[in-house]
Amino acid sequence: MLRIQSLGEDMKTILFLLLFCVAVHRCLSATCSNVIPGLVKLSRGVDITKLDLTPLDTTEDDGFDRRIFDFTCNKKAMWTSPYNPGVAYDLPDQVETANSIPGGVLDASVKIHTSFNDVKRSMSSKAGVSFLKGMFSLSGSYKRFEHSIANNSRRIAEVEAFFSAIQLDFLPFWDLSLSNSALNYINKVLPVNYESDPSKFNDFIKYFGTHYFSTGKFGGLFRVSILMESSLLQTMSSRDIEANAKGSFFKILKAKGGYSGSMTSVSEQFSSKTQIAARFYGGNANLLDVDSWNNWWSSVPSNPWLFAGKLEPIINLIPDGPKKEAMKVAFNVYLDKAYLTEIQRLLYSFLNKGKVGEERALQFLNRANALISQLIPDHNAVEALGSEVEKFITVPEWFLTRTQLCYQWYPDGDGGQCSAPS
């Protein structure tokens, strides 16, 4: 048996440090000093109700919360970006793969949104998660799009392309561990059931979120958002709208020096009924400079933007047991109440317009208020209410695009009393 008393002071110190490292599974040699740009953000939890990957206002809450992973570099793996070959980055033990992704202006995609759910499905697709009511309900960009569709009778087209992109994949969830901070909260603060103290579960979500990105796609992103008057859908086909949207995209890109090829001209009809906003994400160049595109492009690898990925529930990382089951209840309640908040917002907006149907809208609002006040709202009742409200406040697309206005009298006697078909 080893007797520490027989060792010299130096040996005692060394042995103590070794035992300490084994106890906490961490040594100074395991520290990651220069991780791949973007990984720090990927280590943070995400609130799925607030997530905003491409915010219209970058000063608003984007849904990213506290760190849920503690990176270690015991394997001492390194990775060199093809976009910045002069720098070798630490590849943490928690990261399985890192690869470049082909992209560019020729891969620009167009999406047209005519409803709230269209917007959410697009956001869900970028986040790599199945669409559920409550997701993105509190996101700043979603609320703006919702306002445009509900209050201004506008529709939305988006065109975007990414550049200098990489994809980072974490290990599968069964090989990952939550950060010490998150585990300490679970072990020391969370009760064993949700009903005993919901505030503790809500605080966990406030600190760490509901999800995490198991895969992240980073790079530079150029995005054009187009608000269209709904009447445009009556006079232009979807194909023509997409062509004009792409034409607007390339026109702006060409002015910045990022495109020199041919492009579709934008019609006067399209220009007169749209509002266009262009945004660059990632990089740090001044886009007002003469060489704005080249400066931005070269700055992207060192300051990439997380523009897409694949979300997984944080619940997957919580150790099995009653607290994990209680957290499942908490997450479902949180999503349902976020969706109820969205329903309330839509109904208040409808009532402020003073439209016919106020009595029914108030009935819906009373149901929403009653559900949101419950400790655990009935999920089926929440979804049923949401479906009813969406049908009630949304003008059907067929009414906008496939109807004729007809009169029962003949002002000139020629019988041409119907408007032209849309």
TrEMBL record:
<feature type="domain" description="MACPF">
    <location>
        <begin position="23"/>
        <end position="350"/>
    </location>
</feature>
<dbReference type="GO" id="GO:0006956">
    <property type="term" value="P:complement activation"/>
</dbReference>
<keyword id="KW-0964">Secreted</keyword>
<dbReference type="GO" id="GO:0005576">
    <property type="term" value="C:extracellular region"/>
</dbReference>
<keyword id="KW-0732">Signal</keyword>
<dbReference type="GO" id="GO:0031640">
    <property type="term" value="P:killing of cells of another organism"/>
</dbReference>
<keyword id="KW-0204">Cytolysis</keyword>
<dbReference type="InterPro" id="IPR020864">
    <property type="entry name" value="MACPF"/>
</dbReference>
<dbReference type="Pfam" id="PF01823">
    <property type="entry name" value="MACPF"/>
</dbReference>
<keyword id="KW-1015">Disulfide bond</keyword>
<feature type="signal peptide">
    <location>
        <begin position="1"/>
        <end position="29"/>
    </location>
</feature>
<protein>
    <submittedName>
        <fullName>Perivitellin-2 67 kDa subunit-like protein</fullName>
    </submittedName>
</protein>
<dbReference type="GO" id="GO:0005579">
    <property type="term" value="C:membrane attack complex"/>
</dbReference>
